[in-house]
């Protein structure tokens, strides 16, 4: 069902328009990721859809009765309200409807006239259906479920909300939005201030909801799991892509290459026609030339496609360290509780170590101990030969706010550095032109982050220690940083909650659980997830085995055993394998026909037809991938 549509939206400020003449629709059940470079206008667009800002042109239309709500980044609460009461206030409308239903029932019990009874009965039925649809008869249980999922403890329910930290208050705002369950959820960075376990819960929760969602997020793993469509806001326009983030990242490159070929083909075709017209315009064939001129004048000219620019980051060559960079034995550290204990690992040169865990589990403390900035309670840390540490602080305190960018990055100990060399270095991290002479305090978070990374290069260190390096970077800068780390000749240690980043970059992973235990994983985040899933399955089978070992009344049901094969759950509706193979064959034929159409020079005389054919080709490929996955499941489970 169509819940929200907009057409002709334009919005700009003093610097110029953010977007112009954009339009799209949101249907029930669609979970759409909104991506784009920093400053493209994503948050502005969400505010317009929520009615908190007005477009310069265009209009937003909501389906009759549809509710839209935006996750606000600045918490606003009633004074002295407790956590539970504040969260429950998101359901005030349902609670008012419940009170109205009780009053209606009481009036119905005393009504004497038939017409009045019919009116009251109809009202009671409507209210009852509304409450049943929103499960309003289990309000307190629903509030507890959401608060528990977002990491709040039961003993915190009666605490005043104003006593919580800023990050916790942001989680309260998220809880209220989830509980209110508007028809259209507008989520601006919903996984901010969440650790990985809480983010995983949020992903599972959102996937099960029937509402439409438009989600702005820099968390690529989150987008991969949650969204089923992606809008890219770039170049003042919006482009739509089917599927999750991974599909979008692949399709955007394919679309760019296809649109570039179409643009080049059309330009070549028009160029040949214009050359012909110039040659024969004054000769005997001038009528034919005039006819061709009219034909090309009618052609809708394609615009040259553009890609979002990715900064070229590179850490350059460094001095070779010893083969062993760090050797850690029986490391222990506690404050009011254990942070880590009996930690043992060896980090070899060229490896990339990742550290992850819940908020407050001691990740940054572990970094400080490894750097020698803080003493451990026990154990030892041995640093290798010629090891030079460079530390990236997540709060970016290494950059003096009153200095210009070029001076903040300039290595004071190296007298041979020249200004052009520093400008070239900053340019590698996307800081060019007059940006290098701006004060650090005037930079955006993403610009400060890239300047701090450039400073590490200027220092020439061979071991990078990065604390949450992707926090302020957009998707394209994250991609560039990951590629730079993969090509880095030295060693890297990274603390991050960005699972996509950890998955792509690290080859050893330390997982802190917040109670002192540390798991050493020789692999990336996917390796950890696989081990976690295997452990959960083993516990499930073990639990089932214990149940069957208890004395019970014999039945004909076969009991579960440890060797029983755990069958995976279905992700797709049941269909016969033969039916899926027929659909796949038909779709492959359709794709071949579309490829032939795209190869035809005649196509590029009509710009609108080019766009329609390209879109149909992309959608067909996405459907084919879906059918392949459905077929694989059917072969295994049918």
Might you state the CATH topology name of the largest domain?
Answer: Rossmann fold
Distance between the termini: 32 Å
Major β-sheet profile: 6 strands, mixed
CATH superfamily of the largest domain: P-loop containing nucleotide triphosphate hydrolases
- Oligomer type: single chain
Task: Write the SSE topology.
Layout: E1 2-13, E2 16-27, E3 31-35, H1 42-49, E4 57-62, E5 68-70, H2 83-88, H3 92-110, H4 114-133, H5 139-149, H6 166-180, E6 184-188, H7 196-207, E7 212-216, H8 220-226, E8 229-234, E9 237-242, H9 245-280, H10 286-297, E10 324-334, E11 338-348, E12 352-356, H11 363-371, E13 378-383, E14 389-392, H12 405-409, H13 419-428, H14 445-459, E15 463-467, H15 475-487, E16 491-495, H16 499-505, E17 508-512, E18 518-521, H17 525-549, H18 577-598, H19 607-637
Parallel strand pairs: 3-7, 3-8, 5-6, 6-7, 12-16, 12-17, 14-15, 15-16
Antiparallel strand pairs: 1-2, 1-4, 8-9, 10-11, 10-13, 17-18
Helix pairs in contact: 3-4, 5-6, 9-10, 9-19, 13-14, 18-19
Question: What tags apply to this protein structure?
Answer:
19 helices; alpha/beta; Rossmann fold; globular; 638 residues
Describe this structure in words.
With 638 residues, the protein is α/β, with parallel strands linked by helices. The protein has four domains: 1-67 and 182-243, 3-Layer(aba) Sandwich (Rossmann fold), CATH 3.40.50.300; 79-178, no CATH class; 324-522, Rossmann fold, CATH 3.40.50.300; 577-637. It is 44% helix and 18% strand. The protein is built from 19 helices and 18 strands. It has helices spanning 42-49, 83-88, 92-110, 114-133, 139-149, 166-180, 196-207, 220-226, 245-280, 286-297, 363-371, 405-409, 419-428, 445-459, 475-487, 499-505, 525-549, 577-598, 607-637, and strands at 2-13, 16-27, 31-35, 57-62, 68-70, 184-188, 212-216, 229-234, 237-242, 324-334, 338-348, 352-356, 378-383, 389-392, 463-467, 491-495, 508-512, 518-521. The two termini are 32 Å apart.
């Amino acid at each position: 069902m169509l819940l929200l549509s907009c057409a002709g939206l334009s919005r700009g400020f003093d610097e110029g328009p953010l977007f112009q003449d954009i339009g799209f629709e949101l249907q029930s059940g669609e979970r759409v990721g909104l991506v784009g470079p920093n400053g493209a206008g994503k948050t502005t667009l969400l505010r317009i859809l929520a009615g908190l800002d007005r477009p310069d042109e265009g209009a937003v239309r909501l389906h009759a009765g549809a509710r839209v709500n935006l996750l606000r980044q600045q918490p606003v609460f009633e004074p002295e309200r407790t956590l539970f009461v504040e969260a429950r206030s998101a359901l005030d409308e349902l609670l008012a409807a419940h009170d109205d239903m009780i009053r209606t029932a009481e009036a119905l019990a005393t009504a004497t006239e038939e017409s009045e009874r019919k009116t009251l009965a109809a009202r009671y039925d409507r209210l009852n259906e509304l409450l049943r649809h929103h499960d309003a008869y289990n309000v307190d249980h629903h509030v507890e479920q959401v608060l528990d999922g977002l990491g709040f403890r039961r003993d915190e329910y009666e605490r005043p909300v104003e006593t919580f930290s800023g990050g916790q208050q942001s989680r309260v705002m998220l809880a209220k939005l989830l509980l209110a369950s508007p028809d259209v959820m507008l989520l601006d960075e919903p996984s901010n201030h969440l650790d990985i376990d809480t983010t995983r819960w949020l992903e599972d929760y959102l996937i099960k909801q029937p509402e439409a969602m438009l989600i702005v997020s820099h968390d690529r793993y989150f987008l991969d799991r949650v969204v089923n469509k992606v809008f890219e806001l770039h170049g003042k326009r919006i482009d739509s892509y089917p599927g999750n983030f991974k599909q979008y990242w692949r399709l955007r490159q394919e679309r760019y290459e296809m649109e570039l070929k179409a643009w080049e083909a059309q330009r070549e075709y028009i160029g040949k026609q214009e050359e012909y017209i110039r040659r024969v315009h004054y000769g005997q064939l001038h009528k034919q030339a005039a006819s061709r001129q009219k034909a090309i004048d009618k052609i809708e000219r394609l615009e040259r496609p553009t890609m979002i620019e990715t900064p070229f980051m590179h850490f350059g060559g460094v001095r070779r360290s010893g083969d062993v960079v760090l050797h850690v034995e029986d490391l222990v550290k506690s404050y009011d509780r254990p942070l880590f204990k009996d930690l043992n690992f060896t980090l070899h040169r060229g490896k990339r170590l990742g550290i992850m865990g819940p908020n407050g589990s001691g990740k940054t403390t572990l970094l400080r101990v490894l750097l020698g900035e803080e003493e451990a309670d026990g154990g030892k840390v041995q640093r290798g030969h010629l090891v030079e540490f460079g530390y990236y602080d997540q709060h970016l305190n290494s950059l003096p706010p009153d200095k210009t960018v070029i001076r903040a990055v300039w290595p004071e100990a190296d007298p041979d550095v020249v200004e052009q060399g520093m400008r070239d270095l900053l340019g590698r991290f996307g800081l060019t032109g007059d940006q290098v002479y701006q004060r650090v305090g005037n930079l955006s978070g993403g610009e400060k982050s890239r300047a701090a990374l450039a400073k590490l290069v200027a220092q020439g260190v061979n071991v990078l220690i990065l604390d949450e390096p992707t926090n302020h970077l957009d998707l394209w800068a994250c991609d560039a940083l990951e590629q730079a780390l993969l090509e880095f000749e030295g060693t890297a240690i990274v603390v991050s909650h960005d699972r996509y980043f950890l998955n792509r970059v690290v080859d050893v992973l330390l997982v802190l659980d917040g109670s002192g235990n540390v798991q050493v994983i020789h692999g990336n985040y996917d390796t950890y997830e696989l081990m976690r899933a295997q452990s959960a399955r083993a516990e499930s089978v073990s639990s089932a085995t214990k149940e069957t070992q208890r004395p019970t009344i014999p039945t004909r049901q076969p009991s579960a055993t440890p060797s029983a094969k755990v069958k995976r759950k279905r992700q797709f509706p049941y269909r016969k394998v033969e039916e899926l193979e027929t659909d796949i064959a038909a779709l492959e034929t359709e794709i071949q026909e579309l490829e032939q159409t795209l190869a035809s020079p005649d196509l590029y005389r009509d710009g609108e037809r080019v766009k329609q054919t390209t879109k149909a080709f992309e959608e067909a490929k996405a459907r084919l991938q879906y059918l392949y996955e459905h077929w694989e499941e059917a072969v295994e489970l049918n």
